[in-house]
Structure to design on (304 residues):
């Protein structure tokens, strides 16, 4: 049988899209509201000593309610990082740029954020970084209130 | 205390395109032309087609036109949401196309009445007027009396 077959299709769109409502919960809402005031708010577990940033309501190890919120200054160290070299839809910054896991001093957890004001080739694990906050009119209940982290320049001694 | 919780809309989106390969590509080309195709295998004509026979791994053979009617082998009733193929509640179903092996996964429009759904029921493809070479060129299957 000689059938004239259709002209083949070569690609098909395979969009993947899901719309959620993100509910932060009481604990993380405290953290998010702090960001709108340039504050990084942590909480400690009385049971095991773990300090969470951002803090949930209950320790994920002990399931105990965490102690009262307190503020950290946001300085910390890069615990790991990657250089994003690949463009993708929705990207806010032109690659290459650095996304790092940052462990703030005094916290037992890590935040993920951009590390800028330094070339990607000069970023290294263990380097000290500090948050750069957005201007007052851009502040909100979001990690975007921190524009990025940047290397800490040691206070004037070798300036 | 949940009233104290912040919430915000949150959308995850990956706008992929995928290459489909020659067999599925021809199948999709058939959809664009308003004709379902299956692919020959040692066990019979497989629809929807695959590049390789899932039981043996052997390469499948030529594509052949098949009927646009079939039998529901399994189904589940769902509420219609934005973006769904049917504007009222409907069924997602596995449909054994007549004269083929395998099953095609698609929507069945039972007029919003789940009581009309049954395994073994007969259905027919409802084609869109404007077709582009995607599975959605079949709007859905409808109950064939
Ligand atoms: Zn604990």
């Amino acid at each position: 049988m000689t059938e004239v077959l259709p002209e083949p299709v070569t690609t098909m769109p395979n969009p993947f899209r899901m719309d959620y409502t993100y509910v932060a919960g009481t604990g993380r809402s405290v953290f998010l509201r702090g960001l709108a005031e340039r504050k990084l708010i942590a909480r400690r577990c009385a049971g095991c000593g773990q300090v969470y940033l951002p803090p949930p309501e209950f320790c994920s190890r002990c399931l105990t309610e965490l102690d009262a919120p307190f503020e950290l200054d946001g300085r910390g160290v890069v615990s790991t990082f990657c250089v994003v070299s690949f463009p993708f839809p929705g990207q806010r910054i032109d690659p290459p740029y650095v996304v790092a896991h940052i462990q703030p001093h005094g916290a037992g957890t890590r935040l993920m954020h951009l590390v800028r004001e330094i070339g990607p080739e000069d970023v290294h694990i263990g380097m000290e970084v500090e948050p750069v906050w957005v201007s007052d009119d851009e502040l909100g209940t979001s990690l975007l209130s921190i524009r990025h982290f940047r290397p800490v320049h040691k206070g004037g001694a070798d300036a | 205390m949940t009233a104290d919780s912040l919430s915000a809309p949150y959308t995850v989106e990956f706008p992929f395109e995928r290459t489909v390969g020659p067999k599925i590509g021809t199948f999709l080309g058939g959809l664009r032309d308003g004709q379902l195709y299956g692919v020959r295998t040692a066990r019979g004509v497989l629809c929807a087609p695959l590049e390789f026979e899932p039981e043996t791994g052997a390469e499948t053979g030529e594509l052949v036109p098949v009927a646009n009617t079939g039998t529901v082998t399994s189904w589940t009733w769902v509420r219609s949401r934005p973006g769904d193929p049917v504007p009222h509640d409907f069924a997602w179903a596995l449909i054994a196309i007549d004269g083929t092996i395998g099953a095609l996964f698609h929507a069945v429009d039972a007029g919003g009445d789940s009581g009309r759904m049954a395994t073994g029921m007969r259905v027919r493809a409802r084609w869109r007027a404007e077709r582009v070479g995607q599975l959605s060129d079949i709007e859905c299957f409808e109950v064939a009396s």
About this structure: Chain B has a mean pLDDT of 94. Residues A 45, 47-48, 50, 59, 61-62, 64 surround zinc ion (CB under 6 Å). The longest helix of chain B spans residues 22-32. Chain B has one domain: 21-143.
